[in-house]
Every structure is written in structure tokens, then in C-alpha cells.
Amino acid sequence: MAVIVPTNKSVESLKGLHLYHGDISNCSMRVRMTLSEKGLDWTSHHLDLKKKENISDDYFGINPKGLVPTLIDNGVVHVESNEIIDYLDEHYPKPSLRAVDNEQEMLEWLRLATSIHVPAVKPYVYATMIQKKVQKTAEEEKKYQELQSNTELKEFHAKHAGGKAFGDEDVVRAKQTLEECFDKLDNALEGRSWIMGEQFTLADISWIPLHFVLIGCGYPFENYKNITRWANAFQNKKSYQEGITKWCPDFSKV
Ligand SMILES: N[C@@H](CCC(=O)N[C@@H](CS)C(=O)NCC(=O)O)C(=O)O
What we know:
This protein has 11 helices and 5 strands, in the order E-E-H-E-H-E-E-H-H-H-H-H-H-H-H-H. By secondary structure, it is of the alpha+beta class. The chain is globular, with a radius of gyration of 18 Å. Bound molecules: glutathione. Glutathione is lined by residues 22, 25-27, 49, 54, 66-69, 80-82, 114, 117.
């Protein structure tokens, strides 16, 4: 469980569920979907990533990597989207989103989604779609360097700083990892409605934002017939609408 003791003490007095999140953030989408599935009331603290609203002393005092989402549950700070949705399902168990037959396999899907985020999802999305839209000014760069202590994120953001840009080789490398994962996902969905079988679980919530964001970036999903069928099945789901399309109707237009 990724619980943080914040240096920004103001959040410790918050009552109920509060979510710091971004409209276009795939990691925020999975938390919003889970809150919707559970019918939980929550207070929104929206941070516009394009305006770099996450790069502030106040926010780094809540989430030390300056990333969204962050969930505050009665003053306790939770980070890491896949851990947050697991936490929400444990603490607010109805309706259960935990695979009854194979919880470990379900958690593996969550871990896989986390593990490919910085190496593959982020570079693909930045290179194909958003790096220009989130370009930092020199002042924002300086502030980011001051606040960020995580080496992996410093290296990632240095790649599109000061006029530099992700290029074709970053897309090719990211695509290799994504392809392995989506081959695995398409195979898992063969003859099944959802990733874990007939039960809708956290695994589906963890992966559908990746599909939504990547298809918006032009990722070629046409040959994945099972993934396409699975993704179409979300269109009328209330949690998909409340967690994803209400905040970000179309990622290709962000
Ligand atoms: N492993 C983290 C990743 C969070 C993350 O990278 N969030 C992105 C949006 S999806 C973000 O805050 N980006 C802003 C930045 O990198 O500065 C999680 O799952 O919560």
C-alpha cells in the first residue's frame, strides 16, 4: 500500500475522499472509474497538466513525485493509481472488483500496467501527442528540477526539455513493449468478456485507460480483435463515462 506522510500538512485534516487528478491522465482515469463503480462520493481537486499545475511546492508536498492521481482518504495520502484502486476495493468492498477465482493473476495485470508506464506508455504518448502541449517554460523547468528528486522522472522529462524532443526511436522502443503487452491482453481476452473471465474486475479498470489514451495517439489496435470487442463493451458503462469521457471526451483532441 503506497501511503505517504505529506510535508504539506493541510491535507491531513481533509474529511472524506479527495482526489487530486488530471482530466487527460490515464492513471487518474482508473481511480475515477473505481470511485464510480463503488458509487463513492469524492471531492475533486483538478490539476491541469497542460498548465503544469502539478509543478508547485504545495502539490509536491502531497505527492513527492508531483504526479497525479493522489487520493486522500480522511487525511491519509495514497499514491500510485494501481495501488489506489486496490486500496479502494479493499476498504470499500461493495461491489467487489476483485477476481474471485484468481486474485493473484488480477494483481499481476495491475503490476504490469504500472511497470510499463514510464518505459513505454509515457514516451509513446509524449512522442506522438502531448510533448508540445506540455512543454515547460525555462522557469517551469527550473522549478521542476528543484522539486523533482526521482531520477527516472528527471531523466524522462529531460528528454523533452529545452527544445529537445522524443523522436521516432523512442516510439519504436515503446511500441515493442506495448506490443508484447497487447498481444498478451488480446490472448487473455480470447473467449472472455473481461480480462479475468466473466467477472468485471480491477484488471479491466487498470487497462482500459491505456487503450483509450493510446488509441487517441493513433496506436494501431485494428488487428487486436479481442481488445477491440472488449473496449467497445465499455462504451455504455457508467463508470467509463464518469471516469473517462466526462473528463476527456477524446484523447486525440487534447
Ligand atoms: N505510477 C504512477 C504514474 C502517475 C503518472 O505518471 N501520472 C501522470 C499522468 S498519467 C502525471 O502526473 N504526469 C505529470 C508529470 O509527469 O509531470 C501512477 O500509476 O499513479
